[in-house]
Amino acid sequence: xxxxxxxxxxxxxxxxxxxxxxxxxxxxxxxxxxxxxxxxxxxxxxxxxxxxxxxxxxxxxxxxxxxxxxxxxxxxxxxxxxxxxxxxxxxxxxxxxxxxxxxxxxxxxxxxxxxxxxxxxxxxxxxxxxxxxxxxxxxxxxxxxxxxxxxxxxxxxxxxxxxxxxxxxxxxxxxxxxxxxxxxxxxxxxxxxxxxxxxxxxxxxxxxxxxxxxxxxxxxxxxxxxxxxxxxxxxxxxxxxxxxxxxxxxxxxxxxxxxxxxxxxxxxxxxxxxxxxxxxxxxxxxxxxxxxxxxxxxxxxxxxxxxxxxxxxxxxxxxxxxxxxxxxxxxxxxxxxxxxxxxxxxxxxxxxxxxxxxxxxxxxxxxxxxxxxxxxxxxxxxxxxxxxxxxxxxxxxxxxxxxxxxxxxxxxxxxxxxxxxxxxxxxxxxxxxxxxxxxxxxxxxxxxxxxxxxxxxxxxxxxxxxxxxxxxxxxxxxxxxxxxxxxxxxxxxxxxxxxxxxxxxxxxxxxxxxxxxxxxxxxxxxxxxxxxxxxxxxxxxxxxxxxxxxxxxxxxxxxxxxxxxxxxxxxxxxxxxxxxxxxxxxxxxxxxxxxxxxxxxxxxxxxxxxxxxxxxxxxxxxxxxxxxxxxxxxxxxxxxxxxxxxxxxxxxxxxxxxxxxxxxxxxxxxxxxxxxxxxxxxxxxxxxxxxxxxxxxxxxxxxxxxxxxxxxxxxxxxxxxxxxxxxxxxxxxxxxxxxxxxxxxxxxxxxxxxxxxxxxxxxxxxxxxxxxxxxxxxxxxxxxxxxxxxxxxxxxxxxxxxxxxxxxxxxxxxxxxxxxxxxxxxxxxxxxxxxxxxxxxxxxxxxxxxxxxxxxxxxxxxxxxxxxxxxxxxxxxxxxxxxxxxxxxxxxxxxx
Length: 896
Prior knowledge:
Blueprint: H1 3-6, H2 34-59, H3 61-78, H4 100-111, E1 116-124, H5 131-145, E2 148-149, E3 152-153, H6 154-157, E4 160-161, E5 164-165, E6 167-168, H7 178-183, H8 186-195, E7 212-213, E8 216-217, E9 223-225, E10 228-236, H9 242-258, E11 265-270, H10 273-284, H11 286-304, H12 314-337, H13 349-369, H14 373-376, H15 380-409, H16 415-451, H17 477-490, H18 493-515, H19 532-543, E12 549-555, H20 564-576, H21 588-598, H22 602-605, H23 618-631, E13 642-647, E14 650-662, H24 668-686, E15 690-693, H25 695-729, H26 732-755, H27 762-787, E16 789-790, H28 793-819, H29 828-859, E17 869-870
Parallel strand pairs: 16-17
Antiparallel strand pairs: 1-10, 1-11, 2-3, 4-5, 6-10, 7-10, 8-9, 12-14, 12-15, 13-14
Helix pairs in contact: 2-3, 2-15, 2-16, 2-25, 3-12, 3-16, 11-12, 11-13, 11-28, 12-13, 12-16, 13-15, 13-16, 13-28, 15-16, 15-25, 15-27, 16-27, 17-28, 18-26, 18-29, 20-24, 24-25, 25-26, 25-27, 26-27, 26-29, 27-28, 27-29, 28-29
């Protein structure tokens, strides 16, 4: 390798200093610390490998580009991505893989398979307890009976309770009888709703507050009015009729969205709603993806090239976006091959990879531009080798921090977060590989085009020798601004004091916000904010804010006959528990034994003990129970809560369910307590024979581990980032200063998340992990560059800002552009990513370009012993009027 001929290798950090003065031969070699030796060895190996790769690409760009394309195609073909949207309500995505509640869910679904679907409407008016509103509700109910799909209507698809189709609403108090409903007066309605304790249609206990919202009570404690009520239709959901059931649900949704003129607002929701609306949100985001890519292409074209026919780089910008697209294909295919599914978080991946990929492009092209005058005259393959030698190591470090952060995130117990982190890690690996091969090849071809004087947009047109770019296109505005204005003003002592005070103030403010950052997660956030399903769930939260959640205690195949004491104790403790809404426990065992105690049927009395009123033996217990739930009015409703088995003509129970409702919980902590409390209660009475289960338990279980998962992942990611910084910078004090930027950025982001109304959930967990990786990029380059300059602290900081400040700003702004359109998205995932990434960019740039330079100018350590660069006050703003790499303007083009 010709490092000694073409520029001195910085023996501490392995970088070739562009235009540096070599040390004299007689000068004694400086002693390096152990850390510096390790850093030098690692980076030297990287730079040697990238130098050789660059020379290869510079010699055979089209071959390398073809190989990269073929490899990408083979990966995508060999491991085709199966697009499976798991945003359709699969809440197990958010539950820890080792959670007991998943075992409970599996048992419930196997013994009591979900063969029930539903559609619900919420009706809102000033007072829904009026003859006008009840008449309108009956009209909607009556219309639902005539909704037909194929040969099926509600009557053929409905779930029956006894001999009636199951529809829960206040109208069941009049047994859905048109004459009675239309004849009811205001006084009749008030009397009926305040006196009802049992449904006259379904014979189960009836709590009017479960179907009313916004109740107003009179002086005697009776309900006088209500602003909302709801109606729920239950239909079959088994495989045989699923298609017809889904079609009928759509008709019901259309009916509800049309509303009724006598009802102020109608909100509707069905089983299919979540999948329809969440899936639609993901597909609707394609427009943002397309527009975002166009914006970034324009930005890359502007920043990578110049405004003239030869030096603009539109083709190179397109190649950069193609690299991102290829990386997306690879990461989706490899992750799918590993068994990971596409989830609701994954729609942001194209934007994430675009933002990271553009940063890499700026580093690579910037390295080519920053070659010294002597190096610019070398053959093309040498120039590409030297450019990749400088940029490859830098890209390796920044990519490694992001990859490590995501692989650490992939160790989480939450499947959705694990899947996203695996997708992202594979994507960044692919981006890293393609940026250093395909994109560098495209850059080589673009350099050849410019040297051949071919037009940047129409490469078939060759410009004449007398063509000269306009003078305006040759000006470098950002470096001039940093050199003439920003750096001199930042390094004034009063400004330094203001910066430190501002940083301390931001830290104090945001540490308070971070401490108060709430943990909360709701699946409805994955719905578009303008969807009918989101509106329904919002209305449900508003008008039925009691938050009562249906649940049940499930018991396995046990000897129920001999478990009389345990079953009675279970009922007693459930009814007395603070984790259960008073009056909502509906126990088949209690109703069964009450029936046995009060029946006058001689056939039944002959089979029970005259004193205890309990069956004489196990066989009689199950025979009478079967009779109770199939023939007795008070027992019919329990038929769906019992799973009978019939082995050798002997009845038994495979499973049973006792229904109840959980009370509302004000926050996630209370949800944890309710979950742990009800599980302990049931285990204390029935051991492992019974367990509580509800859909809400999945959410509570998820919330229980999100915060601790976040803390663990952040801590591990931070340690990895610090180690990488230490190896790269090879100075403990500078590394600590850089890490302070990362820590301050993280705290600032967390605090403003609180002020912006965001919470800790699976989405923000991903973003906070990513923030660690991105934040270090803005400060690590500043810290490293500072160590390579000799001189006083102020002049070293100024030299650092002039050399690396522009690329850092461009990288941060390109990341912002990649996400900017997400601000107007209706998707929670997209808008949250925009908010957090916006904060990361703003605070990352502030600490990297404002706080860190000030800190280094005041207490920065001495330069590397081998540092041989000094800031020249009289340096030119531009190497040549024609630009750094405008080979087309040279009298004799360099050798290619």
